[in-house]
Write a structure and sequence with these properties.
By secondary structure, the protein is mostly helical. It contains 13 helices and no strands. It is globular.
Length: about 425
């Protein structure tokens, strides 16, 4: 049926208005569900602290998270009203998992890595169940999707291409590719582990030298009048978090890839590409976060940032203002997410997590402004690409050298003054 332009425009405008009203109502409902989950979760925390010595199970956070994940996966096959109601128990079990994530400290790095995953999936599960439209949703298809189809839809935070309803019998080449993939991931995990334990840890301990508590005192947070020893400590502490995050995320990513591709065979090798980009892309603060750092959370953070800027603030889509607000909100969400992870693990100076990411945003915004200047274009033409890359990496190191201790030192200082017994 052919419709006139004016009627079509009015229909689209009316549809947008209805969508905006529904989005605002959904925000209110989601906030109410979140508050309800908090009211149930807080007494649980108090009970957990009382009975913690009676609970010998160190894997309880994994159990809680498994329940939340299964509810999320099977919820994709239900109607939207049901999916909305499922957010309550999903958030509740996720928060219970987050509150007990410190019990995974028996595996080095597992507690912080797992807590980061849970915090991210609090936002991602809401987006997946309420806002996104998937092929497995009953509103879009009457096909009887399998549990694996729903799992693959759920476990796709990077919005990679999906292959749903695979054939029961795989071609021989698929089994061979899974075997090669499993071998490569095993070698990758082994290499990362060997470098961490036999190289980095030794270099790290040697570089710190005879470190004392005063090296992390509040006076040391600002890079003025430092001794050679303090400069050495500051240099290694300013970049060690990059390697540790890279190691833990890629190491556990490889292990999980082996489980879900080679053992359970839920996924295909192309569903588990590397998390991080090339270190050679980290020649600016923008390149560090935008091209080198992992992008697991970016699609979700971008979605919420644009939802706020467009629906709540009324910013024109695609405008320069929207791009700026989106970047600011992404760094802000990242900061609060890290603070929530720190809270679950007993970290101190949680506001420093937010401050660190806001300073990264300011640096990236400054780089963007400078790159648009004509004088910058003239200077870029003088130097070779290699020279620009080296200079850029030096700038990124200096930037983190200046701001990372403001973020990290208060946490280390608190741990040294109040060691866990």
């Amino acid at each position: 049926m052919i419709v006139g332009n004016s009627q079509s425009t009015a229909s689209r405008g009316g549809f947008r208005n209805v969508t905006q009203v529904k989005s605002k109502k959904l925000f209110i409902i989601i906030i109410l569900i979140f508050i309800s989950a908090i009211f149930i979760f807080v007494p649980y925390c108090q009970t957990t602290n009382t009975l913690q010595t009676m609970d010998p199970e160190p894997l309880s956070p994994l159990f809680y998270y498994m329940i939340a994940s299964v509810l999320n996966i099977i919820g994709l096959k239900t109607r939207r009203q049901t999916r909305l109601l499922l957010l309550g128990p999903i958030w509740l079990f996720s928060l219970m998992s987050l509150a007990t994530s410190h019990r995974l400290s028996c595996m080095i790095g597992a507690d912080s890595t797992f807590a980061s995953l849970v915090v991210f999936y609090l936002l991602y599960s809401t987006k997946t169940l309420v806002f996104d439209q998937h092929a497995v949703n009953p509103e879009l298809s009457t096909h009887d999707w399998s549990f694996v189809d729903c799992y693959r839809t759920w476990n796709n935070p990077r919005n990679l291409p999906l292959r749903l309803s695979p054939l029961e019998k795989e071609a021989p080449s698929d089994s061979i590719s899974r075997a090669f993939f499993s071998f490569n991931q095993t070698m990758k995990a082994a290499t990362l582990w060997a470098f961490e334990h036999f190289v980095f840890q030794k270099v790290f301990i040697h570089a710190l030298g005879q470190v004392v508590v005063a090296d992390f005192s509040p006076e040391m947070e600002v890079a003025f009048q430092l001794s050679s020893h303090q400069i050495q400590v500051r240099a290694i502490m300013s970049v060690q978090w990059i390697w540790r995050a890279y190691f833990f995320l890629e190491f556990y990513h490889s292990l999980l890839a082996i489980v879900f591709v080679a053992i359970l065979r839920f996924d295909y090798p192309e569903d588990w590409p590397p998390l991080f980009g090339s270190p050679m892309e980290a020649y600016s603060v923008r390149g560090f976060w935008g091209r080198f750092w992992h992008s697991l959370t970016i699609p979700t953070y971008v979605y919420y940032s644009r939802l706020v800027s467009r629906q709540l603030m009324g910013v024109q889509p695609g405008s320069r203002l929207e791009k700026t607000i989106t970047a600011l909100l992404i760094f802000t969400i990242s900061g609060f997410s890290h603070a929530l992870v720190g809270w679950s693990l007993g970290d101190a100076a949680l506001f420093r997590d937010v401050l660190f990411f806001e300073m990264c945003f300011l640096a990236a915004a400054g780089e963007t402004a400078i790159s648009k200047m004509k004088v910058w274009s003239n200077l870029s033409g003088i130097f070779s690409p290699l020279s620009r890359t080296v200079a850029g990496m030096a700038w990124v190191f200096v930037f983190f050298f200046c701001i990372s201790p403001i973020w990290i030192y208060p946490k280390v200082y608190h741990v040294l003054l109040h060691p866990i017994r």
